[in-house]
Amino acid sequence: MTLVRRAVAELVGTAFLVMAVVGSGIAATRLSPDDVGLQLLENSLVTGAALVALILAFQPVSAAFNPVVTLVERVLGLVTTRDAAALVVAQVVGGALGAVLANLMFGLDAVSVSTHDRSGGGLWLGEVVATLGLVAVIFGSVRRGRADTVAYAVGGYITAAYWFTSSTSFANPAVTLARTLSDTFAGIAPGSVAVFVLMQLVGGALGLGLVLLLHPDPELPRPDVTEETA
């Protein structure tokens, strides 16, 4: 499997993920203009469903769609430094492309810099929690030999995390950067990005520590019911 194929998978997958996030946010505000709760519900369900589909489709090639996930893979020795750098660049480029396409599909300017300020201790803590949980869900599943469940686990987790985290669970630096390019429901002001990304990296590091604590042996088979209840 060539690095080019993996990079293309990451670029296209991240582009579609951002289109799902931004596009559904635009659609939600138009379809339910007077109900923010319903807008968030629509946005979260579409994002979760898209993640399941995209991971299932691209996982045989590469389906991180997230620089934090790729960095964790690098720390675990699953990818080389060169490959990780290329995949992160592809994710960032794909995310930007997805935001532009979402804007254009809904008749907006290709780029409209977001003015949606997202700052404050609660939101920053929300990003730590959201990213920690995402890393734990992905790599906890993988290290227990259940990689085939990752698509459903991630889709379900992100759908829920939209609601139980104060930040609505960005949990992804590439998606965060892309969302600055759309001054719509899902947007984030450029001035809010740096701390969001920092908190995502902190959450990723904490998530990695938790994964290594709970699943130190990636070859460990899933125990049967007798072993778990003994």
From TrEMBL:
It is found in: Membrane. The chain crosses the membrane at residues 7-28, 48-72, 84-102, 122-142, 149-165, 185-214. The keyword Transmembrane applies. GO terms for molecular function: water channel activity. GO terms for cellular component: plasma membrane. Keywords: Membrane, Transmembrane, Transmembrane helix, Transport. It comes from the Bacteria. It is a multi-pass membrane protein. The keyword Iron-sulfur does not apply. Pfam families: MIP (PF00230). Gene3D superfamilies: Glycerol uptake facilitator protein. Belongs to the MIP/aquaporin (TC 1.A.8) family. This is Aquaporin. It comes from Nocardioides luti.
